[in-house]
Amino acid sequence: MGLDLLLASTPSPAAGNGGGFDLFSILLWPFKWIVETILVAWHWLFTAFGMAPNAGLTWVLSIVGLVIVIRAAVFPLFVKQIKSQRKMMEIAPQLKKVQEKYKGKRDQLSREAMSRETMALYKKHGTTPVSSCLPMLVQMPFLLGMFYTLRDVGDHAKHGIGGVGLLHADLTKQFYDATLFGVAPLHIDLRTALETKPAGWEATVTILVVLVVLMIVSQFYTQLQIISKNLSPEAKTGQAYQMQKIMLYVLPLGFIFSGVFFPLGVVLYWFVSNLWTMGQQFLVIREMPTPGSDAARAREERLARRGKALNAEGKIVPIAVYEAEQQRLLEEAERAKEQAPKREQPMSKKRAKKKGSN
Amino acid sequence: MSALPSYAFGTARFRASDLIRGILVLPRNAVLAFLVVYRAVISPLYGDVCRYYPSCSAYAVGAVQQHGAVWGTILSAWRILRCNPWSKGGVDDVRPHAHFHYELTPHGFVVPARKD
């Protein structure tokens, strides 16, 4: 998620120069339309419950609603991936064999061969540790659509026009007039607030700074939790891990600079979105940790204190059942060992002949 | 970032004498330049996400090299659509162009083939 946010923020200066019909806005059009529809639908719902249509709280809650809809839509994919990770435990021995085979070989051909074998193994067993590319890339235009929808409100309201879809001119004006806590307009960003100094700008700047800091801290904390607790030892050896560790500190720096240009509405969206990620991550780290990670060990310890353990299928069972299962598995392994044909010492032909003659 | 498959790079070099003939492969090299930057800067941030070998971005490199900027992009888009949570993944190479008459540089750019 963190990366998406930074990428969404990077093209903003270039694309900010107007409402021209360039390729970028054409591609973004459907996503903006969907974002506007969700936003307006929530707004309609809240006003139907008797909230003022131009009140700050109504629009803030609509933004929260937008976060909920978008994050809930990708939630099933998230669960699916977690479940797939469980299945990974079954193929771990075979995976290890492939890794052993190419241990210490850093040349491109070996890496290619290793990747091919690993992928073929995943496919054979119908499981994979990775999420797939499409959801990653699909989230990006939605985020950009949200970013530009919220950001364009300022421009559109000044020209008395609406957005691309249901966010028509009147609603845009209402959004424009909406203020957080009665002072901070949702369309204002830190730089504008400092330059134009509108009425009550001190409070506005304070609110913006606090929200930007909250956004950065929540982002950093979530990343830190994943990296420090929920990575398996194998994942901690790769090049990607080094990059993630660097990004952990680079991303907040990026946000300090770009946060100055984010309108209050956008900062709010990202903060709420980060809260969702934090909650989701907390649950995963606690209840569905990556096998082999520190979080998984902590969970096993917690279970042990309650007199429970994880059985071979990853289900929680009482410790007695677990021990019985371990005993059974051990016996099965021993029996299999006994039944397996014993290896015979190879014998030279000469010796065999000698033995036969005796 | 997954490694580029061995068919996606070569040992050829761009020579100044090929400037005119090189215009033909300019579009695909422009796309390839974008892909090289993407794979160096953005790919590592995502970590390993792709369900296939070669990964979607590495597939895109191969597809654009073999089939050009337009058809290569279409093939890559189709591949990204296939790389979804319901796909099985596995090994999925680019179908090479039947009459590929260019050469590849070590970074995967396309240059006109030597006449000699």
Automatic annotation (TrEMBL), chain B:
Subcellular location: Cell membrane
Signal peptide stretch: none
Membrane topology term: Peripheral membrane protein
Source taxon at top rank: Bacteria
One Pfam family of this chain: YidD
Main subcellular location: membrane
Keywords noted in UniProt: Cell membrane, Membrane
NCBIfam families, A to Z: membrane protein insertion efficiency factor YidD (TIGR00278)
Family named by the database record: Belongs to the UPF0161 family.
Known role: Could be involved in insertion of integral membrane proteins into the membrane.
Protein name in UniProt: Putative membrane protein insertion efficiency factor
Phylogenetic lineage: Bacteria, Bacillati, Actinomycetota, Actinomycetes, Micrococcales
